[in-house]
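Predict the assembly for these two chains.
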Amino acid sequence: MNSMHYLYAAYIATWVIHGSYLVILMRKYSRVRKEMATLKK
Amino acid sequence: MKRGFTILAIVTALLLCFALYEALIAAPTEQTMGNVQRIFYYHVPSAWTAFVLFLINFVSSIVYLARRNVKADILALTSAEVGVVFCTVVLITGPIWARPVWGIWWTWDLRLTLTLVLWLIYVSYLILRRFSTSGKTPVIAAVLAVFGALDVPLVYFSIWFFRTQHPSPVIGDGGSLDPRMAHVLLINWAAFLCLAWLLCWTRYRLEFLKREVEEAQALESLMETSR
C-alpha cells in the first residue's frame, strides 16, 4: 500500500471518530431536550 | 451562552481547516519517512489533548471527593468521555503510522502498552458510570479516576526513562524537531484543544439537562404516588 494511503487513512479515521461522537452527542441532546419539553407541558 | 458556543464552534471549524492545510500542505516533508510522517500532526496533538482532559478529570474528581460538588462530578465525567475519544484517535493513528514505518501494526512496547492500559482504565470508568446503579457511583468513579490518572505521567515519561520502540521526545530538551514542523504541530494542538472544549461543552450541557430531566421525572412520579 502506498504511504499516502496510510496518511489518508489516519486523517479519515480521526475525522470519522470525532464526527461520529459529535453526531451521537447532538442526537442525545435533542432527545433530552424533547423529553424536557414534554415534562414541562 | 448560546452565542459563546456558536463563536467557539466557528473558531474551531476555521482553526481545524487551517491546521489541516498546514499539516498536509504547508509543513515540510520529512526526509526519512516522507509524507506518512504527517500523521504526526494528528497523532501527537490528540495524545496531548487526551492528557489535558485526563488531568481535568483528575482535578475534578479530587474536587468532587473533597466537596461533593455536582458540577465537578459532571466535569469529571465529561472530560473522561472526551479524553477517551482523543485517546482512541491516538490508538488508531499510531498503528496506521507504525505499519509503513516499523513494518508492524502493533508491538507490546512500554509506551504503546501503557497507552492501551490508560484507554482501558478510562473506558472502565465510563462503563462504571453508565451501568452502576449504586448511589455511591460518583464516589467510586472519582476514586478510580484518581488512581487511573497515575498512568498519565507513566505514559508521558516512559520514552524519557526507558528505551522503547516509540520515538524519543521531539520537543523540549534533546528534541530535534524542525521549527516549521513544531509550528504546525502547535497549530494542530490549538485546533484540537478548541475541538475538545467544544465537545466538552456539548457533553456537559447534555449531562446537566439529563440530570434535570431525571429529577423532574422523579418528582413527577413522587407526586403521582402521593395522589
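The mean pLDDT of chain B is 91. The helical segments of chain B are 2-26, 40-67, 70-102, 110-131, 137-148, 151-161, 179-226.
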